[in-house]
Amino acid sequence: MSIGGSTAAAELATLPAWAERALPISRAERIARLDRARAATEAAGAQALLVNAGASLRYFTGIPWGPSERMVALLLPVSGEPMLVCPAFERGTLEADLAIDADLLLWEEDESPVARVADAIGAGGTLAVDPLLPFAWGEKLRGAGLTLVDGAPAIDGCRLIKSPAELALLGQTKAMTLEVHRRAARILTPGIAASEVVRFIDAAHRAIGAAGSTFCIVQFGRATAFPHGLPGEQYLAEGDLVLIDTGCLVEGYHSDITRTYAFGAVGDEERAIWSLEKEAQAAAFAAVRPGATCESVDHAARRVLEAAGLGPDYRLPGLPHRTGHGIGLSIHEPAYLVRGDRTILAPGMCFSNEPMIVLPDRFGVRLEDHFHVTETGAAWFTEPQWSIDDPFGG
Question: What is the pTM of this model?
Answer without folding.
Answer: 0.97
